[in-house]
């Protein structure tokens, strides 16, 4: 349950594009290929990596330095995005609301200008970071 609730914030966990190019769906962006960069080779992986910020998978179990690094990353996020600056109700604990927010991001941004086997448009990666954070 923790995994599903935690993952619902990733927009491509809340949608799949179905159209003439992907009649069976794009499996949440997994079949939208991108030129490989930092180990990221598809649209789903781009969003999993917070737009190339955290590509790859952590080595488990975490070492003390891994825990320290993740704590620093969390602190940095809190500093960059104080509660007073957020445009969403962070007190809303309804996972369905979170899924709808993810879907809206995918509908309005995730696929905009993205083409199979091409780099994402200029400006896309920084905006994706902002949305993901």
Largest sheet: 2 strands, antiparallel
Strand content: 5-15%
Tell me how many strands there are.
2
- In whole angstroms, the N-to-C terminal distance is 21 Å
Helix content: 40-55%
Task: State the helix count.
Answer: 5
User: What number is the mean pLDDT?
Assistant: 90
Name the shape in a single word: globular
Radius of gyration: 16 Å
Which residues form runs of ≥5 with pLDDT under 50? none
Largest sheet, spatial ordering of strands: 1-2
Explained architecture:
There is one protein chain. By secondary structure, this protein is mainly alpha-helical. The chain has a domain at 2-55 and 95-132. It is built from 5 helices and 2 strands; from the N terminus they run αββαααα. The chain has a two-stranded antiparallel sheet with strand order 1-2.
Characteristics of this structure?
two-stranded antiparallel sheet, single chain, 41% helix, 133 residues, mainly alpha
Task: Record the SSE blueprint.
Elements: H1 2-7, E1 33-37, E2 40-42, H2 43-48, H3 64-80, H4 95-110, H5 124-132
Antiparallel strand pairs: 1-2
Kindly summarize this structure in a few lines.
The protein is built from five helices and two strands. The chain has 133 residues and is mainly α.
């Amino acid at each position: 349950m923790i995994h599903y609730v935690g993952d619902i914030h990733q927009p491509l966990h809340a949608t799949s594009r179905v159209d003439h190019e992907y009649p069976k769906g794009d499996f949440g962006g997994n079949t939208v290929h991108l030129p490989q960069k930092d180990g990221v080779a598809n649209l789903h992986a781009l969003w999993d990596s917070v737009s190339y910020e955290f590509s790859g998978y952590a080595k488990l179990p975490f070492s003390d330095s891994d825990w320290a690094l993740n704590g620093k990353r969390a602190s940095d996020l809190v500093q960059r995005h104080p509660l007073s600056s957020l445009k969403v109700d962070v007190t809303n604990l309804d996972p369905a609301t979170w899924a709808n927010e993810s879907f809206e991001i995918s509908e309005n941004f995730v696929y905009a200008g993205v083409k199979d086997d091409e780099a994402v448009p200029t400006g896309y990666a920084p905006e994706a970071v902002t949305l993901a954070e």
